[in-house]
Design a protein that fits this description.
By secondary structure, the chain is an alpha/beta fold. It folds into 2 domains: about 110 residues, Rossmann fold (3-Layer(aba) Sandwich); about 180 residues, 2-Layer Sandwich (Dihydrodipicolinate Reductase, domain 2). The protein is about 30% helix and about 25% strand. The chain has 8 helices and 13 strands. It has a 7-stranded mixed beta sheet, covered by helices on one side. Helix 2 packs parallel to helix 3 and helix 4 runs parallel beside helix 6. The chain is globular and about 60 Å long.
Length: about 325
Protein backbone atom coordinates (compact mmCIF):
# COMPACT_ATOMS: atom_id res chain seq x y z
CA UNK A 1 0.00 0.00 0.00
CA UNK A 2 1.01 3.62 -0.57
CA UNK A 3 0.85 5.95 2.42
CA UNK A 4 0.84 9.65 3.20
CA UNK A 5 2.13 10.41 6.67
CA UNK A 6 0.16 13.18 8.37
CA UNK A 7 2.37 14.92 10.92
CA UNK A 8 6.14 15.28 11.00
CA UNK A 9 6.94 15.22 14.72
CA UNK A 10 9.15 12.74 16.56
CA UNK A 11 6.91 9.69 16.06
CA UNK A 12 6.99 10.19 12.28
CA UNK A 13 10.57 8.88 12.27
CA UNK A 14 9.29 5.54 13.57
CA UNK A 15 6.82 5.16 10.71
CA UNK A 16 9.37 6.19 8.10
CA UNK A 17 11.70 3.48 9.39
CA UNK A 18 8.94 0.86 9.66
CA UNK A 19 7.71 1.47 6.10
CA UNK A 20 11.27 1.43 4.81
CA UNK A 21 11.62 -2.11 6.18
CA UNK A 22 8.40 -3.39 4.60
CA UNK A 23 8.54 -4.71 1.06
CA UNK A 24 5.48 -3.55 -0.86
CA UNK A 25 4.68 -0.65 1.47
CA UNK A 26 5.59 2.79 0.20
CA UNK A 27 5.64 6.24 1.77
CA UNK A 28 4.86 8.78 -0.93
CA UNK A 29 5.07 11.95 1.16
CA UNK A 30 3.76 13.81 4.18
CA UNK A 31 1.29 16.47 5.29
CA UNK A 32 2.46 19.09 7.75
CA UNK A 33 0.49 21.94 9.30
CA UNK A 34 3.73 23.89 9.60
CA UNK A 35 5.22 22.96 6.24
CA UNK A 36 7.93 20.90 7.92
CA UNK A 37 9.48 18.07 5.90
CA UNK A 38 9.91 14.64 7.41
CA UNK A 39 13.13 14.66 9.48
CA UNK A 40 13.87 11.05 8.49
CA UNK A 41 12.99 11.56 4.81
CA UNK A 42 13.53 15.23 3.92
CA UNK A 43 13.53 14.59 0.16
CA UNK A 44 9.92 13.35 0.10
CA UNK A 45 7.28 15.90 -0.90
CA UNK A 46 5.32 17.68 1.81
CA UNK A 47 1.82 19.12 1.33
CA UNK A 48 -0.22 21.49 3.54
CA UNK A 49 -3.26 19.19 3.60
CA UNK A 50 -4.49 15.90 2.17
CA UNK A 51 -6.56 17.59 -0.51
CA UNK A 52 -3.34 18.98 -2.00
CA UNK A 53 -1.62 15.60 -2.39
CA UNK A 54 -0.97 15.13 -6.11
CA UNK A 55 0.38 11.57 -6.04
CA UNK A 56 -1.64 8.33 -5.88
CA UNK A 57 -1.99 6.89 -2.38
CA UNK A 58 -4.16 4.34 -0.60
CA UNK A 59 -4.03 5.24 3.09
CA UNK A 60 -2.85 7.75 5.66
CA UNK A 61 -0.91 7.27 8.85
CA UNK A 62 -1.87 9.90 11.42
CA UNK A 63 1.10 11.01 13.51
CA UNK A 64 -0.45 14.24 14.77
CA UNK A 65 -1.13 15.12 18.43
CA UNK A 66 -3.81 12.97 20.08
CA UNK A 67 -6.62 15.50 19.91
CA UNK A 68 -6.23 15.98 16.16
CA UNK A 69 -6.66 12.35 15.13
CA UNK A 70 -10.35 12.71 14.33
CA UNK A 71 -9.67 15.62 11.98
CA UNK A 72 -7.18 13.66 9.91
CA UNK A 73 -9.36 10.56 9.86
CA UNK A 74 -12.43 12.46 8.66
CA UNK A 75 -10.43 14.27 5.98
CA UNK A 76 -8.95 10.99 4.74
CA UNK A 77 -12.31 9.20 4.78
CA UNK A 78 -13.85 11.97 2.65
CA UNK A 79 -11.13 11.21 0.08
CA UNK A 80 -11.84 7.47 0.27
CA UNK A 81 -8.51 6.65 1.95
CA UNK A 82 -7.92 4.07 4.67
CA UNK A 83 -6.73 5.33 8.07
CA UNK A 84 -4.10 4.03 10.47
CA UNK A 85 -3.72 6.37 13.42
CA UNK A 86 -1.11 6.64 16.12
CA UNK A 87 -2.56 5.87 19.56
CA UNK A 88 -4.98 6.67 21.07
CA UNK A 89 -7.98 6.64 18.73
CA UNK A 90 -8.69 10.16 20.03
CA UNK A 91 -9.14 11.86 23.41
CA UNK A 92 -12.92 12.48 23.47
CA UNK A 93 -15.95 10.25 22.90
CA UNK A 94 -17.58 12.65 20.45
CA UNK A 95 -14.38 12.82 18.40
CA UNK A 96 -14.09 9.03 18.28
CA UNK A 97 -17.72 8.76 17.23
CA UNK A 98 -17.25 11.24 14.37
CA UNK A 99 -14.12 9.63 12.94
CA UNK A 100 -15.52 6.12 13.26
CA UNK A 101 -18.75 7.07 11.51
CA UNK A 102 -16.88 8.92 8.76
CA UNK A 103 -14.76 5.86 8.00
CA UNK A 104 -17.76 3.54 8.17
CA UNK A 105 -19.78 5.73 5.81
CA UNK A 106 -16.87 5.92 3.36
CA UNK A 107 -16.24 2.18 3.49
CA UNK A 108 -12.60 2.60 4.54
CA UNK A 109 -10.66 0.75 7.20
CA UNK A 110 -9.78 2.50 10.49
CA UNK A 111 -7.02 1.05 12.65
CA UNK A 112 -5.01 2.21 15.65
CA UNK A 113 -1.32 1.64 16.29
CA UNK A 114 -1.57 -0.19 19.59
CA UNK A 115 1.47 -2.20 18.58
CA UNK A 116 1.94 -3.95 21.92
CA UNK A 117 -1.00 -6.16 20.95
CA UNK A 118 1.32 -7.78 18.40
CA UNK A 119 3.60 -9.23 21.09
CA UNK A 120 3.37 -13.06 20.93
CA UNK A 121 3.02 -13.28 24.73
CA UNK A 122 0.30 -10.63 24.88
CA UNK A 123 -1.60 -12.40 22.12
CA UNK A 124 -1.42 -15.81 23.76
CA UNK A 125 -2.56 -14.36 27.10
CA UNK A 126 -5.49 -12.70 25.32
CA UNK A 127 -6.48 -16.01 23.71
CA UNK A 128 -6.24 -17.91 27.01
CA UNK A 129 -8.32 -15.29 28.79
CA UNK A 130 -10.98 -15.33 26.07
CA UNK A 131 -11.14 -19.13 26.21
CA UNK A 132 -11.45 -19.14 30.02
CA UNK A 133 -8.39 -21.36 30.38
CA UNK A 134 -6.80 -19.24 33.10
CA UNK A 135 -9.68 -19.60 35.53
CA UNK A 136 -11.47 -16.77 37.30
CA UNK A 137 -9.39 -13.60 37.32
CA UNK A 138 -9.88 -11.75 40.58
CA UNK A 139 -7.02 -9.24 40.51
CA UNK A 140 -4.96 -7.39 37.90
CA UNK A 141 -2.33 -4.86 38.93
CA UNK A 142 -0.72 -2.63 36.32
CA UNK A 143 2.38 -0.55 37.01
CA UNK A 144 3.56 1.91 34.35
CA UNK A 145 6.12 3.98 36.25
CA UNK A 146 8.03 5.91 33.62
CA UNK A 147 10.16 9.04 33.62
CA UNK A 148 10.32 12.06 31.33
CA UNK A 149 12.31 15.19 32.11
CA UNK A 150 10.98 18.74 31.75
CA UNK A 151 12.78 19.06 28.44
CA UNK A 152 10.51 16.43 26.96
CA UNK A 153 7.43 18.45 27.85
CA UNK A 154 9.03 21.70 26.72
CA UNK A 155 9.76 20.20 23.28
CA UNK A 156 6.14 20.71 22.21
CA UNK A 157 3.70 23.33 23.42
CA UNK A 158 0.91 20.74 23.49
CA UNK A 159 2.78 18.17 25.60
CA UNK A 160 1.26 17.60 29.01
CA UNK A 161 -1.79 19.69 28.15
CA UNK A 162 -5.43 18.71 28.03
CA UNK A 163 -6.47 20.29 24.72
CA UNK A 164 -4.26 18.18 22.41
CA UNK A 165 -2.43 15.58 24.51
CA UNK A 166 -5.64 14.92 26.42
CA UNK A 167 -3.83 14.40 29.71
CA UNK A 168 -0.59 13.20 31.23
CA UNK A 169 0.84 9.67 31.47
CA UNK A 170 -2.55 7.97 31.59
CA UNK A 171 -3.51 9.29 28.15
CA UNK A 172 -0.02 9.44 26.71
CA UNK A 173 2.88 7.27 27.96
CA UNK A 174 0.84 4.53 29.72
CA UNK A 175 -1.82 4.45 27.01
CA UNK A 176 -0.32 1.31 25.47
CA UNK A 177 -0.33 -0.46 28.83
CA UNK A 178 -3.88 0.60 29.60
CA UNK A 179 -4.83 -0.65 26.14
CA UNK A 180 -3.64 -4.12 27.09
CA UNK A 181 -5.62 -3.89 30.33
CA UNK A 182 -8.82 -2.93 28.49
CA UNK A 183 -8.15 -5.49 25.73
CA UNK A 184 -7.75 -8.24 28.31
CA UNK A 185 -10.43 -7.32 30.84
CA UNK A 186 -12.81 -4.77 29.34
CA UNK A 187 -14.09 -1.69 31.14
CA UNK A 188 -14.68 -1.56 34.90
CA UNK A 189 -18.00 -0.65 36.47
CA UNK A 190 -16.48 1.44 39.25
CA UNK A 191 -13.37 3.63 39.32
CA UNK A 192 -11.76 5.75 42.01
CA UNK A 193 -8.58 7.63 41.16
CA UNK A 194 -6.10 10.06 42.66
CA UNK A 195 -3.92 12.19 40.36
CA UNK A 196 -1.32 14.85 40.93
CA UNK A 197 1.47 16.87 39.34
CA UNK A 198 4.74 16.56 41.25
CA UNK A 199 7.84 16.79 39.05
CA UNK A 200 6.92 18.91 36.01
CA UNK A 201 5.50 22.25 34.99
CA UNK A 202 2.54 20.90 32.99
CA UNK A 203 -1.23 21.27 33.02
CA UNK A 204 -2.04 17.55 33.33
CA UNK A 205 -1.05 14.94 35.90
CA UNK A 206 2.41 13.39 35.94
CA UNK A 207 1.58 10.68 38.49
CA UNK A 208 -1.57 8.92 39.61
CA UNK A 209 -3.28 5.74 40.71
CA UNK A 210 -6.69 4.19 40.12
CA UNK A 211 -8.69 1.43 41.80
CA UNK A 212 -11.23 -0.39 39.64
CA UNK A 213 -13.95 -3.00 40.12
CA UNK A 214 -15.27 -4.96 37.17
CA UNK A 215 -18.69 -6.49 36.65
CA UNK A 216 -17.38 -9.99 37.39
CA UNK A 217 -15.97 -8.81 40.72
CA UNK A 218 -12.36 -8.47 39.56
CA UNK A 219 -10.41 -5.70 41.31
CA UNK A 220 -7.85 -3.88 39.21
CA UNK A 221 -5.24 -1.30 40.09
CA UNK A 222 -3.11 0.92 37.90
CA UNK A 223 -0.30 3.36 38.59
CA UNK A 224 0.87 5.59 35.74
CA UNK A 225 3.67 8.12 35.99
CA UNK A 226 6.30 10.16 34.21
CA UNK A 227 7.71 11.37 37.54
CA UNK A 228 9.23 8.12 38.83
CA UNK A 229 12.92 8.54 38.15
CA UNK A 230 14.75 6.83 36.52
CA UNK A 231 11.86 4.94 34.90
CA UNK A 232 10.89 1.29 35.38
CA UNK A 233 9.70 -1.59 33.25
CA UNK A 234 5.94 -1.85 32.87
CA UNK A 235 4.44 -4.77 34.78
CA UNK A 236 1.02 -6.40 34.73
CA UNK A 237 0.47 -8.93 37.52
CA UNK A 238 -2.62 -11.11 37.15
CA UNK A 239 -4.06 -13.41 39.82
CA UNK A 240 -6.68 -16.09 39.20
CA UNK A 241 -8.16 -19.01 41.13
CA UNK A 242 -5.71 -21.22 39.20
CA UNK A 243 -2.56 -19.23 39.90
CA UNK A 244 -0.70 -16.12 38.80
CA UNK A 245 1.38 -14.70 35.98
CA UNK A 246 3.27 -11.50 35.23
CA UNK A 247 3.88 -9.66 31.98
CA UNK A 248 6.93 -7.39 31.97
CA UNK A 249 7.32 -5.19 28.89
CA UNK A 250 5.14 -7.49 26.78
CA UNK A 251 6.85 -10.73 27.78
CA UNK A 252 5.75 -13.35 30.31
CA UNK A 253 8.31 -13.02 33.12
CA UNK A 254 6.50 -15.21 35.67
CA UNK A 255 4.05 -18.07 35.17
CA UNK A 256 2.40 -20.35 37.71
CA UNK A 257 -1.00 -21.45 36.40
CA UNK A 258 -2.19 -24.88 37.50
CA UNK A 259 -2.25 -27.35 34.62
CA UNK A 260 -0.81 -24.98 32.03
CA UNK A 261 2.82 -24.78 30.97
CA UNK A 262 4.29 -21.35 30.38
CA UNK A 263 3.20 -20.42 26.82
CA UNK A 264 5.64 -17.52 26.56
CA UNK A 265 8.02 -17.00 23.67
CA UNK A 266 11.39 -16.96 25.38
CA UNK A 267 13.05 -15.70 22.18
CA UNK A 268 10.88 -12.58 21.93
CA UNK A 269 11.93 -9.18 23.22
CA UNK A 270 10.57 -5.84 22.11
CA UNK A 271 13.48 -3.44 22.50
CA UNK A 272 11.44 -0.32 23.31
CA UNK A 273 9.87 -0.27 26.77
CA UNK A 274 9.05 3.45 27.00
CA UNK A 275 10.33 3.70 30.56
CA UNK A 276 12.86 6.46 29.98
CA UNK A 277 12.42 7.71 26.43
CA UNK A 278 9.82 8.31 23.74
CA UNK A 279 12.30 7.41 21.00
CA UNK A 280 11.71 4.12 19.19
CA UNK A 281 14.61 2.30 17.55
CA UNK A 282 12.99 -1.14 17.23
CA UNK A 283 10.17 -0.75 14.69
CA UNK A 284 9.30 -4.44 14.44
CA UNK A 285 6.02 -4.04 16.33
CA UNK A 286 5.02 -1.08 14.14
CA UNK A 287 5.82 -3.18 11.09
CA UNK A 288 3.56 -5.91 12.46
CA UNK A 289 0.71 -3.42 12.96
CA UNK A 290 1.12 -2.15 9.38
CA UNK A 291 1.18 -5.72 8.06
CA UNK A 292 -2.04 -6.54 9.93
CA UNK A 293 -3.65 -3.27 8.77
CA UNK A 294 -2.92 -4.04 5.12
CA UNK A 295 -4.24 -7.58 5.56
CA UNK A 296 -7.41 -6.19 7.16
CA UNK A 297 -7.96 -3.95 4.13
CA UNK A 298 -7.46 -6.86 1.72
CA UNK A 299 -9.67 -9.23 3.69
CA UNK A 300 -12.40 -6.75 4.61
CA UNK A 301 -12.02 -7.37 8.34
CA UNK A 302 -11.30 -5.34 11.46
CA UNK A 303 -7.61 -4.68 12.19
CA UNK A 304 -6.03 -6.10 15.34
CA UNK A 305 -6.76 -2.74 16.98
CA UNK A 306 -9.90 -1.58 15.22
CA UNK A 307 -11.98 1.43 16.25
CA UNK A 308 -14.52 -0.46 18.38
CA UNK A 309 -11.79 -2.17 20.40
CA UNK A 310 -9.38 0.77 20.58
CA UNK A 311 -12.02 3.21 21.81
CA UNK A 312 -12.30 1.20 25.05
CA UNK A 313 -8.82 2.38 25.98
CA UNK A 314 -9.77 6.05 25.73
CA UNK A 315 -13.03 5.35 27.56
CA UNK A 316 -11.09 3.70 30.39
CA UNK A 317 -8.71 6.65 30.66
CA UNK A 318 -11.59 9.10 30.63
CA UNK A 319 -13.22 7.10 33.44
CA UNK A 320 -10.01 7.44 35.46
CA UNK A 321 -9.89 11.20 34.85
CA UNK A 322 -13.58 11.66 35.58
CA UNK A 323 -13.61 9.74 38.87
CA UNK A 324 -10.64 11.45 40.51
CA UNK A 325 -10.99 12.38 44.18
Amino acid sequence: MRYVLVGTGNISNTYVAALDERSGSELVGCVSRRGRALPAAPDLPCWPDLASVDRPFDAVILATPNGLHHQGAIEAAELGKHVLTEKPLDIAVVAMDKMTEACRAAGVTLGVCFQRRTSPDNRVVKALLDDGQLGRVFAADLSAKFYRDQGYYDSGDYRGGMALDGGGPFMQQACHNLDLYAWFFGLPEQVVSMLGTFAHQIEAEDHGAALMRHGNGMIGTVVASTATRPGFSARLEVHTDRGSFTLTDDSISFWDIEGLANPGRQDFQYAHDGATSASVTDTSAHQAIIEDFEAAVREGREPLAGAASARLTTELILQIYRERV
